[in-house]
Amino acid sequence: AQTVTQSQPEMSVQEAETVTLSCTYDTSESDYYLFWYKQPPSRQMILVIRQEAYKQQNATENRFSVNFQKAAKSFSLKISDSQLGDAAMYFCAYRSANTGTASKLTFGTGTRLQVTL
Amino acid sequence: KAGVTQTPRYLIKTRGQQVTLSCSPISGHRSVSWYQQTPGQGLQFLFEYFSETQRNKGNFPGRFSGRQFSNSRSEMNVSTLELGDSALYLCASSYGSRTDYGYTFGSGTRLTVV
């Protein structure tokens, strides 16, 4: 079974600064997808960024980028130029590329990000 | 276009009762998944329906069940409610079965069992 670990329960960053959220995972599969989701107080899970394991290039979406280290099974999220609206719970998630189990997302325990002025 | 709609947003039930939660996916999406979110256990996968068939199931007791209708709307039912069933229940929809399709989540139903 796959597991996802987020070792930072809470993080704080000043507005306009950069913060990195950590995520490690464990799997025996070679083909899979990794995601970062944001959950603001509205409760809706919002996709921030996704990475295909077969792609070596790190994914980037505007101010959000990842550092994907497949051999180390590490998938960290970097938020640049942090904004007040970035304050939320951030979840790292794993999804198998095996069509039999691909519908299941396995989530980490989350990191609460606080953005201060 | 409209997002994933979950109703109701809040629900209070008494232990031993049963409850039905509803999820309307994005138009055209055929896959609906359900997750339970609690402070203690985090986010856990309940089940997934695709074209009215349950395709995948998480490790939950038989009190948790679901179904999907021909219009892709899905319901989940919890019978004989226990205090530990208090949680945020999230629904996510996706276009199809290919693994590169992404999921869109709803805002959830907050269930409180007293």
Question: What do these coordinates show?
Answer:
The complex is a heterodimer of chains A (117) and B (114). With 117 residues, chain A is an all-beta fold. Chain A is 0% helix and 52% strand. In chain A, strands 2, 5, 6, 10, 11 and 12 form a six-stranded mixed β-sheet that branches. Chain A is globular and about 45 Å long. Chain B has no helices and eleven strands. In chain B, 34% of the residues are buried. The chains are: A mainly beta (117), B mainly beta (114). The interface between A and B is medium-sized, with 27 and 28 residues.
Key terms:
heterodimer; A: 117 residues; 4-stranded antiparallel β-sheet; 12 strands; B: 114 residues; mainly beta; 0% helix
In short:
Chain A is mainly β and 117 residues long.
The parts of chain A where pLDDT drops under 50 for at least 5 residues are none
User: What is the first-to-last residue Cα distance of chain B?
Assistant: 37 Å
Write down the overall geometry of chain A.
Answer: globular
- Runs of chain B in which pLDDT lies below 50 for 5 or more consecutive residues are none
Structural class of chain A: mainly beta
Cα-to-Cα separation, first versus last residue of chain A: 41 Å
